[in-house]
Amino acid sequence: MNSNEPTLSGHPVVSREEWLEARKEHLRKEKEFTRLRDRLSAERRALPWVRVEKEYVFDAPEGKLSLAELFGGRSQLIVHHFMFGPGWKEGCVGCSFNSDHADGALVHLMNHDVSFVRVSRAPLAEIEAFNKRMGWHAKWVSSNGSDFNYDFHVSFPEADRACGKMHYNYTESDFQSEEMSGLSVFYSDAAGHVFHTYSTYARGDEGVLGTYFYLDLTPNGRNETGPRHNLSDWVRHHDRYGAGGHVDHTGRYLAPPNATKPDACCHTEQHGS
């Protein structure tokens, strides 16, 4: 085969020597990116904090909990703002995709002084029903009735919908949904004071998605070819693949006509526990 002869898909195929030369040049760029990511992480940790003075109360399986109690005896807390509004019956597809990945990290985080909690505005009963179906293990509480989601800019009142604008990801944008996603990080000092150290939204939590890491290594990449060119083009709740339907612009799954509900046993059969 001649050097640079294209394949049927139009991709060049070269000798092993030429491949190695190109790979080493790309490795140089990968190392630059890794060093840049390390610097950004250090700068993130050096950002100033804000003391949380407001009292927030959450509904948890064991009763009412404060924000301080969500730390579970650890000094650091990551909150996953999971898109799941009152009456939705099931959570956002993208947040569910995130949760499929995060659950595997829980034991490691807990043994490195980090608690991880999902927070949604849906009532606790709706959260627990969906959580049981999905088979996840992270703590998940309801902020229903508190200002927590609104103060951290992941839930939006009817007034925002009416005016067509919302403040999300540190800027004003067109209204998208009454619920949005993100991650917030908190620190608790020895005196029990709680500080908000960081929040990220939109694609800011994409590093959680190991599936994307693997797809980015493959020739076809993410191959998101639907109308929005994002995960909603193909990702589904892990018990809905092959069931048809689609995901709307708010991240909510819409079943095809005459669809049956997913079997609650599917998660155990496919993934174990």
Describe this structure in words.
- Helix content is 29%, strand content 21%.
- The chain has 8 helices and 14 strands.
- The chain has helices at 16-45, 93-102, 106-110, 124-134, 148-151, 158-163, 210-217, 266-271, and strands spanning 5-6, 12-13, 50-51, 57-60, 63-66, 76-81, 114-120, 139-142, 165-168, 171-174, 182-188, 194-201, 246-247, 253-254.
- The strands form 5 sheets. It has a 6-stranded mixed beta sheet with strand order 3-12-11-6-7-8.
- Strand 13 (246-247) and strand 14 form a beta hairpin.
- It is globular, with a radius of gyration of 21 Å.
- It starts with a strand and ends with a helix.
Series of secondary-structure elements, N-terminal to C-terminal: EEHEEEEHHEHEHHEEEEHEEH
The total count of helices amounts to: 8
Rg over CA atoms, rounded to whole Å, is: 21 Å
Number of strands: 14
User: Describe the biggest sheet?
Assistant: 6 strands, mixed
Low-confidence segments, given as residue ranges, are 263-273
Let me know the average pLDDT. Answer: 91
Distance between the termini: 49 Å
Strand order of the largest sheet: 3-12-11-6-7-8
Strand content: 15-25%
Q: Give the CA-based shape.
A: globular
Helix/strand/pairing category? alpha+beta
Helix content: 25-40%
Structure summary:
The chain is of the alpha+beta class and 273 residues long.
